[in-house]
């Protein structure tokens, strides 16, 4: 499967619009999304639940891209979303996303954030630790309110992934440990609280997972725990949330199973486990972020300066970098990129594709094969839709790029490019 499409003029197209035209109309650096790809991935996940006849919910992990427009697409597709901060929650609410379809994650939610979530009628809070149970109790009392929760646990599964982005192992800052009995204790506290309605359990084992094994081990552990909870505390879960982490293809070296194929196999496995227990399967929730927006996103840059040193790989620099895509500098994430015109011309040289930020580590792609380029050419980095714009910063006081959504051959700007005035709007004179 190719990571990009071209038209008859041999130009890279995004949702049928040439990347060069988008770059010309909106300027670069530019983040572009193919909305149809987002919709198709949500539908593909949902379709697996239907095929397997298992009740399920797709809850988009909006940390992957949290802007008003994405919440609106998610809502149009009748999916849920999860947020991990008051800011993400405020963005979803400003987008008109129904709060009752939102779940609130985070390992250190503040009193203010919990209060804001409760006042806005959050669908559920995914409780992470004892401090939070305590805060939540206080906030619920002050608001005379009730809330649905899931209990987040760490099942001690190490999914096959990059070590910096694993969260499922027992030595994790997230969730209640199962082995030591903390998860049981959390359930007991929650069940004893009349304002809290425990709907079930949650775990997330990591990111960029390419196969089913980790999810299968995870679900086995969670089902076992739930079975214990039923016996010990007469608690029956309505929801089993297995988290996100479905991997995507970033480069031709990646060979993940399709996210929906992973889900299908995991659902079979869950069904089998419940059949053995002679119990019915609760509602299964998943929280994909990357799989929904990652492949749909493209970063467009203009090539500028070039540094050639005899005997060394040249540096080709673009007008963006770690400020709009931190992943390569943060955890050596790898991407593929092509020129917007004639992307399949033969490769003449291998370059470092560098960013413009004042860090030697600001290299977007370390070894990129490209045809000869000239300043002003548009280059497209592929599959940048997840954790790119959402991690963007104003480092070096560079404005963050505009975001454009393309659908049915039409482009729409959904986030404006920041201006210099935006950069200093909160600065005060001394
Ligand atoms: C709790 C939780 N759910 C879902 C996700 C989404 O993961 P991904 O974007 O890899 O699907 C994350 C990512 O860190 C997470 O921490």
Automatic annotation (TrEMBL):
<feature type="domain" description="Orn/DAP/Arg decarboxylase 2 N-terminal">
    <location>
        <begin position="36"/>
        <end position="294"/>
    </location>
</feature>
<comment type="function">
    <text>Specifically catalyzes the decarboxylation of meso-diaminopimelate (meso-DAP) to L-lysine.</text>
</comment>
<dbReference type="InterPro" id="IPR029066">
    <property type="entry name" value="PLP-binding_barrel"/>
</dbReference>
<feature type="binding site">
    <location>
        <position position="290"/>
    </location>
    <ligand>
        <name>substrate</name>
    </ligand>
</feature>
<feature type="binding site">
    <location>
        <position position="359"/>
    </location>
    <ligand>
        <name>substrate</name>
    </ligand>
</feature>
<dbReference type="GO" id="GO:0008836">
    <property type="term" value="F:diaminopimelate decarboxylase activity"/>
</dbReference>
<comment type="pathway">
    <text>Amino-acid biosynthesis; L-lysine biosynthesis via DAP pathway; L-lysine from DL-2,6-diaminopimelate: step 1/1.</text>
</comment>
<comment type="subunit">
    <text>Homodimer.</text>
</comment>
<feature type="binding site">
    <location>
        <position position="331"/>
    </location>
    <ligand>
        <name>substrate</name>
    </ligand>
</feature>
<protein>
    <recommendedName>
        <fullName>Diaminopimelate decarboxylase</fullName>
        <ecNumber>4.1.1.20</ecNumber>
    </recommendedName>
</protein>
<keyword id="KW-0457">Lysine biosynthesis</keyword>
<dbReference type="InterPro" id="IPR000183">
    <property type="entry name" value="Orn/DAP/Arg_de-COase"/>
</dbReference>
<feature type="binding site">
    <location>
        <begin position="287"/>
        <end position="290"/>
    </location>
    <ligand>
        <name>pyridoxal 5'-phosphate</name>
    </ligand>
</feature>
<dbReference type="InterPro" id="IPR002986">
    <property type="entry name" value="DAP_deCOOHase_LysA"/>
</dbReference>
<keyword id="KW-0028">Amino-acid biosynthesis</keyword>
<feature type="binding site">
    <location>
        <position position="387"/>
    </location>
    <ligand>
        <name>substrate</name>
    </ligand>
</feature>
<dbReference type="GO" id="GO:0009089">
    <property type="term" value="P:lysine biosynthetic process via diaminopimelate"/>
</dbReference>
<dbReference type="InterPro" id="IPR022644">
    <property type="entry name" value="De-COase2_N"/>
</dbReference>
<feature type="binding site">
    <location>
        <position position="245"/>
    </location>
    <ligand>
        <name>pyridoxal 5'-phosphate</name>
    </ligand>
</feature>
<feature type="binding site">
    <location>
        <position position="327"/>
    </location>
    <ligand>
        <name>substrate</name>
    </ligand>
</feature>
<keyword id="KW-0456">Lyase</keyword>
<feature type="binding site">
    <location>
        <position position="387"/>
    </location>
    <ligand>
        <name>pyridoxal 5'-phosphate</name>
    </ligand>
</feature>
<keyword id="KW-0210">Decarboxylase</keyword>
<dbReference type="GO" id="GO:0030170">
    <property type="term" value="F:pyridoxal phosphate binding"/>
</dbReference>
<feature type="modified residue" description="N6-(pyridoxal phosphate)lysine">
    <location>
        <position position="63"/>
    </location>
</feature>
<dbReference type="InterPro" id="IPR009006">
    <property type="entry name" value="Ala_racemase/Decarboxylase_C"/>
</dbReference>
<dbReference type="Pfam" id="PF02784">
    <property type="entry name" value="Orn_Arg_deC_N"/>
</dbReference>
<keyword id="KW-0663">Pyridoxal phosphate</keyword>
<feature type="active site" description="Proton donor">
    <location>
        <position position="358"/>
    </location>
</feature>
<comment type="similarity">
    <text>Belongs to the Orn/Lys/Arg decarboxylase class-II family. LysA subfamily.</text>
</comment>
């Amino acid at each position: 499967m190719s990571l990009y499409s071209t038209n008859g003029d041999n130009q890279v197209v995004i949702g049928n619009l040439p990347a060069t035209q988008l770059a010309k109309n909106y300027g670069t650096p530019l983040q572009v999304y193919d909305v149809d790809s987002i919709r198709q991935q949500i539908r593909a996940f949902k379709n697996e639940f239907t095929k397997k006849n298992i009740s399920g919910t797709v809850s988009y992990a909006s940390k992957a891209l949290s802007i008003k427009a994405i919440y609106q697409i998610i809502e149009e597709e009748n999916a849920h979303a999860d947020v991990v901060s008051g800011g993400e929650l405020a963005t979803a609410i400003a987008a008109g996303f129904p709060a009752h379809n939102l779940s609130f994650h985070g390992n250190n939610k503040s009193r203010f954030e919990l209060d804001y979530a409760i006042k806005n009628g959050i669908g559920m809070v995914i409780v992470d630790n004892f401090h939070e149970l305590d805060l939540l109790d206080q906030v619920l009392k002050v608001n005379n309110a009730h809330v649905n929760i899931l209990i987040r646990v760490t099942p001690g599964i190490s999914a096959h992934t990059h070590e910096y982005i694993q969260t499922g192992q027992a030595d994790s800052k997230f969730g209640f440990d199962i082995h030591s009995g903390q998860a049981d204790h959390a359930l007991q506290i929650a069940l004893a609280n009349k304002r809290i309605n425990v709907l079930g359990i949650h775990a997330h084992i990591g990111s960029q997972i390419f196969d089913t094994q980790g999810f299968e081990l995870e679900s086995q552990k969670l089902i076992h725990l739930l079975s214990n909870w039923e016996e010990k505390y007469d608690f029956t879960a309505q929801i089993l949330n297995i988290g996100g982490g479905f991997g995507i293809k970033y480069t031709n070296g990646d060979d993940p199973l399709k996210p929906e194929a992973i889900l299908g196999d995991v659902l079979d496995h869950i069904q089998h486990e419940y059949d053995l227990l002679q119990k019915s399967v609760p509602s299964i929730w998943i929280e994909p972020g990357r799989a929904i927006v990652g492949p749909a996103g493209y970063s467009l840059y203009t090539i500028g300066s070039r540094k050639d040193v005899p005997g060394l790989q040249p540096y080709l620099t673009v007008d963006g970098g770690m400020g709009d895509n931190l992943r390569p500098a943060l955890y050596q994430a790898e991407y593929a990129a092509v020129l917007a015109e004639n992307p399949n011309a033969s490769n003449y040289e291998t370059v470092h594709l560098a960013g413009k930020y004042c860090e030697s580590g600001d290299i977007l792609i370390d070894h990129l094969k490209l045809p000869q380029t000239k300043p002003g050419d548009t280059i497209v980095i592929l599959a940048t839709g997840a954790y790119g714009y959402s991690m963007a910063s104003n480092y070096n006081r560079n404005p963050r790029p505009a975001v454009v959504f393309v659908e049915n051959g039409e482009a729409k700007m959904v986030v404006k490019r920041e201006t210099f005035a935006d950069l200093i709007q909160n600065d005060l004179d001394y």
